Amino acid sequence: MKKSLGLLSILATSLLLSGCGEPSSLPSSSTPTSDSPSSEQEHSSAIDFTTRYADGTLSFAKQNDEEISVVDPTHPDDMDALATVVYKLSSLNGVTEAKVSIATSKPKVLPLSSITHEYTSFTSSNVINGGTLTIDLTKVQEGESYLRLDFKGLNGNSASGYLVKKITVKPFGEVVTNHVKETLIFDYSKVTETKSLNALKDSTAKITIINQDVPYGADILSYRYMTIATIYDEMSKKQTIEFETLLGATVFFNIARPQDGNPDRPSFYEITKETKTSDFEQTKSSVVFQKEGLEVTISVGNMEA
């Protein structure tokens, strides 16, 4: 499942900072033009790369340094190799136009060409209250680099400031997460229609689990995107799947069988029940775990017409 990101490119000409000059301009609406850096070099020591998670009303969403991964082309991960760094700005500033610039202390590890920017949080009045830096992991190298974001509001209360955090680029599979093991139990006892039942028994039906909130290259055994053939147990009429995820992450799931004569268009099985407790919330297409080691039962019905 590919995520549609609609990324806006950073104006990078002035981002190869040498300690002087204005940050580059990013309009607060639509798509700014894109300039790629003509060269990359170590930044001048005049740029301050001292860690700063917050500056007035400007702050990183995660108040800590972060780990990302290089790409492993041999790993069968069907989701985009991207990482994101999110920042927030108080909407009370009333800023609708701003200048944003990015600098990295080690361009060979974290090149400017790997980073794109977009404002991702707007109020109904088009006030900027956050943004996202998206890192293309195909362009990074193992090592450490500091990432600096300079923000200058051009209207409203003209909020301005800068943020800095360390980004560590690690080998695939070594990004440390507080992952937990969870279990989904697919209950097929309500599947009664012949075609739906046969597809479960002959495994032409497939279960898809999409663990998209788990970062690329995380230290978990489960893939972020899993397709698993159905197994129908005549006695229990249940199928159990264990996997690793993160607490609070949204795990999407579905069961489907390719349509006859149109294999690219699946027929989905109905999920007949939704459940919400203090430990988890399960809808007809997703589940969010708030506690480790849970077993959540998914009640499955016939294929939808």
Describe this protein with a few key phrases.
Immunoglobulin-like, mainly beta, 3% helix, 305 residues, 5-stranded mixed β-sheet, 2 domains
Structural notes for this entry:
This protein has 305 residues and is an all-beta fold. The chain has 2 domains: 13-170, Immunoglobulins (Immunoglobulin-like); 179-303, Immunoglobulin-like (Sandwich). Helices cover 3% and strands 41% of the residues. It is built from 1 helix and 20 strands. It has one helix spanning 194-201, and strands spanning 25-26, 54-55, 58-60, 66-69, 82-89, 98-104, 115-118, 130-136, 143-153, 160-170, 179-187, 206-210, 225-229, 238-246, 250-259, 262-271, 275-276, 280-282, 286-289, 295-303. The strands form 3 sheets. Strands 11, 12, 13, 14, 15, 16, 17, 18, 19 and 20 form a 10-stranded mixed β-sheet that branches. The chain is elongated. It starts with 24 loop residues before the first strand and ends with a strand. The model is unreliable at 1-42 (pLDDT under 50).
Structural class determined from secondary elements: mainly beta
Regarding quaternary structure, what we see is: single chain
pLDDT < 50 stretches: 1-42
Radius of gyration: 23 Å
Describe the sheet with the most strands.
10 strands, mixed
What is the CATH topology of the largest domain? Answer: Immunoglobulin-like
Number of separate domains: 2
Shape: elongated
Number of helices: 1
Helix content: under 10%
CATH architecture of the largest domain: Sandwich
- Chain-averaged pLDDT: 85
CATH superfamily of the largest domain: Immunoglobulins
